[in-house]
Amino acid sequence: MLPKFITTSLLMGFTLSVSAITPQDLLKSYEAQSSKASSNRGEQFFNVKHGKEWSCSSCHENPPNHDTKHIVTGKVIMPLAPSANPTRFTDEAKAEKWFKRNCNDVLGRECTAQEKADVLSWLMTVK
Amino acid sequence: MTPMKIKYTLYVAATLLLASASAFAAKMAMPTDAPASYDAECASCHMAYPPALLSEQSWKNVMSGLSKHFGTDASVDAKTQAEITGWLMKNATSRQKYSETAPDNRITKTTWFIRKHDEVRSDVWRRAGIKSASNCGACHIDAAKGNFSENNIQIPAK
Fold first, then answer.
1. Mean pLDDT of chain B
2. How far is B83 from chain A (nearest CA, A)?
3. How far is A5 from chain B (nearest CA, A)?
4. Which residue, among B131, B136, B140, would best test binding to A if mutated, counting the most A CBs under 10 Å from its CB?
5. Number of CB pairs < 8 Å for A and B?
6. Domain presence at residue B49
7. Mean of pLDDT values over B85-112
8. Residues pairing with A77 in the sheet
9. Which residues from chain A sit within 8 angstroms of residue B130, using beta carbons?
10. Minimal Cα distance from B43: which residue of A?
11. In this predicted model, what pLDDT tens digit does every residue of A91-113 receive, in sequence order?
12. Which residue in A36, B7, B59, B137 is a FRET match for B18, CA 20 to 30 A apart?
């Protein structure tokens, strides 16, 4: 009985540690696919337009450390900086989904691992 | 006027009032069984529109073009897409009045929407507190609960 309980607990702990990540983990993963992140480059990338109508900051504002509003619908968007919203960048699938959607909106293509690393490293410095 | 006549007049007035109130009371309650994905995938960018605002065919059209969703990429994985589409279609309007296939898949381009809002001036739509016709809750303060009653509107002054 006891061994089974322990095994179950271990398995559950293992599952949790696999699905929950930290922004640092995600940053490392993007850096592993590219090279060292530059938060200066990330800040620049976040705040300029890339040939289309919007920048990242059109909806998330700068600095993205407070509730903001979607530029078209006015819907409230929670802060993007992990310092203001600890749930940000703790779910890899969710982060990837939003990078894909929002990069398509802002750049008309998906972002590279380097661009994601840069932006994330800057967001992690936002107070 | 005799007391009898006064009573009758009051009765008629009350009936008319009730009739007009129910004609204006647009209720589109959110079904209680919305999948969590509806909130996570759709309501991140706009309010969770009650499915009864569109017809089955309109929802099908909206959900088949999510990668180009009114100027944004709102794509979801196949499993989530099937889940949300099924739920929207099951709860789509069953009322003739709302049954048209929405032009450009937009609720705001349906005949009934345009008629219902024809007194709203264009500068009112542009106010910062409203921004967009898709922002139902800016004026319909209980829109999230599916209450679009004309008695329950507060138009932002700015």
1. 87
2. 17
3. 31
4. B131
5. 42
6. yes
7. 95
8. A68
9. 74
10. A75
11. 999 999 999 999 999 999 999 99
12. B137
Q: Which helix or strand (DSSP H or E) is residue B145 part of?
A: none
Q: Which of A99, A101, A103, A105 to probe the B interface (max B CBs under 10 A)? A: A101
Structure confidence by residue, pLDDT tens digits, A15-54? 444 468 999 999 999 999 999 999 999 999 999 999 999 9
Considering only CB atoms, which chain B residues are within 8 Å of A70?
45-46
Taking residues B67-79, report their average pLDDT: 95
Quick check: is A40 in a domain? yes
Chain A contact for B45 (CB, 8 A cutoff) = yes
Nearest Cα to B125, choosing from B82, B156, B88, B149? B156
* B140 domain residue, yes or no: no
Q: Check: CB of residue A44 under 8 Å from CB of residue A38.
A: no
Helix boundaries (H) for chain A: 2-19, 23-32, 39-47, 56-60, 92-107, 113-123
Phi, psi of A68 (to 5 degrees): -130, 180
For residue B7, pLDDT beyond 70: no
pLDDT band, very low/low/confident/very high, at B19 (cuts 50, 70, 90): very low
Residue A44, domain member (yes or no): yes
Q: B66 CB near a chain A CB, below 8 Å?
A: no
Amino acid at B78: A
Task: Give the per-residue pLDDT at A99.
Answer: 98
Supply A114's token pair: 């380097």
Tally of structural domains, chain A: 1
Q: Which residues constitute the domain of residue A26?
A: 21-123
Residue A89 lies in a domain: yes
Structural domain range at position B72: 34-101
Report if residue A9 sits inside a domain.
Answer: no
Q: What is the CATH number of the domain that holds A25?
A: 1.10.760.10
Q: How far does the CA of residue A50 sit from the closest CA of chain B (Å)? A: 15
